[in-house]
Amino acid sequence: MRTEFGTPFRALAAALLALAAPAIAAEPRYESAGTGVFGGRKLDWKSSVETFVLDDAARIFTTSYRKAGKADPARPVIFAFNGGPGSSSIWLHLGLLAPERVDMDDATAPRTVAPFHMQPNPDSVLDVADIVLIDPVGTGYSRLLPGGKPEQFLGVQQDARATARVIRQWLLRHGRTNAPKYLLSESYGTIRAAAVAKLLAGGPTETGQMDGVTLNGIILLGQAMDMARGAEGDDRGYLALLPSLAATACHFGKGPEGCTPEGQGDAARAYAADAYLKALYAGSALPAAERRAVAESLSTLTGLPVAEVLEHDLRISAPVFARRLLAADGLALGLYDARFTLAAQGLAGDPVADDAAMGQYVPAFVAGWEDYARRRLKVASDEEYIAIAFRDVNGRWDWGRGPGIPPARNYATDLAAAMARNPGLKLMVGTGWYDLVTPVGSAEYTIAHAGIPLGAVRFHTYRSGHMPYLGAAERRALARDIRDFLREGE
Questions:
Q1: Mean pLDDT of 389-395
Q2: CA–CA gap between residue 26 and residue 378 (Å, rounded)
Q3: If we measure between CA atoms, which residue out of 426, 72, 71 comes closest to residue 214?
Q4: 111 versus 298: which is more confidently predicted?
Q5: Are 54 and 162 in contact (CB under 8 A)?
Q6: What is the pLDDT of residue 372?
Q7: What 8-state DSSP symbol labels residue 144?
């Protein structure tokens, strides 16, 4: 026999559930304010760390920085997020956009033990735009609620729908629906940006309603949209990687005397589009003499011995290059940023902890957040801020064919659809020469082969890696290019 509980019992049950709920599940909001100099302009700012609850299934936190005083309806708003999938926005947040940043000016010998340091960030683009950083479900302080299920949010389309809803709700909550709108994304976040742009520009068949939210511009850093490459026999990855290998070799003095990273990158780009492409297309039918000649050219570009190039059948992968370029010195390069090195001996092969870049810059960001969130943002919570959730988010991600099954599609076509629907949408693509994970050549190839109108695209390269804001000169150059991109849309 089923027993029906009356109102008092339901109230008691609700109270007990509330006591058992996570510490900051009740839609908290933390406010702060400050003054800084950004882009040479003194500015009073205010911040909000706030919650958006979606269908009583998840809470998504955003951190926004806005110009203090009366809101300017024409002031742009940048919505920013990182990637993973499973990464919070901590990297863009404390590396580029916040009023303070982690001290990572030395990208060749970073501090790897506490105490780490935060410092004023004059390169933040707060002088020209308000900024909203979004932490997807399972990252930062964003969590599933008791009524939510992972499959509602942990997937390409699910995540894009949630992000689009948060953007719409933030605009409504802050009265900014008529503001110029931009997305700033990094790594997997570039896939999210493409999917969100298509949703926001789409009709009721995609979203269930006609949203009519158009974007003025999208900024892609370390673009990762083409997930269709990499199958056995697919040589596009080697062609796209070569410019970054050549630039990195020059950086370490392994290129021709007097070379520059940009010059070597350009030479490799030209070689990849001609002789290298023809050689890889020929495959095993390539005559021995021609094979030897190609290996010699690749050796000059990459700094690797001819014998090693031949051993790998003219196809040098990023992991091979990272292990071998400075092997004589006992060093391994970072894949995410080849400027970073670690002693090769003793590394255990973990793709993150043993990556010379990620293994060294992550601790400063994590420690920096704990200090910054309490001191500057006034976050009053002991709940853990999750920088990257590998197992619980990345490992359960639904790419469209079920959790964990890699995709075989180019998400740049979503971006092309959004740009076709919105002729005013502009695109900026920023890539670091020393990014061996999402290299310069990959960005150029992906954009050129997706049906994106190239007249609306601005390409920029930096002497940096996957996070092009690590290093003082690189961060200043990136911030300048973002400012110019926003002003172009005025």
A1: 89
A2: 17
A3: 426
A4: 298
A5: yes
A6: 94
A7: E
Cis omega (within 30 of 0) on the bond before 85? Answer: yes
Q: Residue 205 has what pLDDT? A: 61
List pLDDT tens digits, range 29-54: 899 999 999 999 999 999 999 999 99
Beta bridge partner(s), residue 25: none
Instruction: Count Cβ atoms within 10 A of the Cβ of residue 12 and give its class: 0-12 exposed, 13-18 middle, 19 or more buried.
Output: exposed
Written as six digits, the tokens of 479 are: 């911030």
Q: Are 38 and 21 in contact (CB under 8 A)?
A: no
CA distance 31 to 33: 7
pLDDT score recorded for residue 10: 36
What's the CA gap between 169 and 81, in Å, rounded? Answer: 16
Interaxial angle between packed helices 236-251 and 261-271, expressed in degrees from 0 to 180 and rounded to the nearest 10: 160
- What is the pTM (predicted TM-score) of this model? 0.91
Contact yes or no for 171/211 (Cβ under 8 A): no
- Would you state the pLDDT for residue 476? 96
**Cα 281 versus chain centre, distance:** 32
254 three-class SS: coil
Q: Which two tokens stand for residue 150?
A: 């992972």
Which of 358, 366, 333, 331 is CA-nearest to residue 345?
331
Domains annotated for the chain, with CATH where assigned, are 22-228+361-488 (3.40.50.1820), 247-349 (no CATH)
In 3-state terms, what secondary structure has residue 456?
A: helix
* Adjacent-strand bridge partners of 45: 34, 67
β-strand pairing of 118-120 with 100-102: antiparallel
* Rounded CA separation 162/152 (Å): 9
Q: Tokens for 327?
A: 């092997």
- Using the structure block, give the residue that is written with the tokens 């849309």: 489
Tokens of 434: 């020393």
Q: From CA 235, how far away is CA 443, in angstroms rounded?
A: 16
Q: Residue 17, CB half-sphere, CA atoms under 13 Å: how many?
A: 10
Question: What is the length of the chain?
Answer: 490
Distance CA 381, CA 373 (A): 10
DSSP state of 2: P
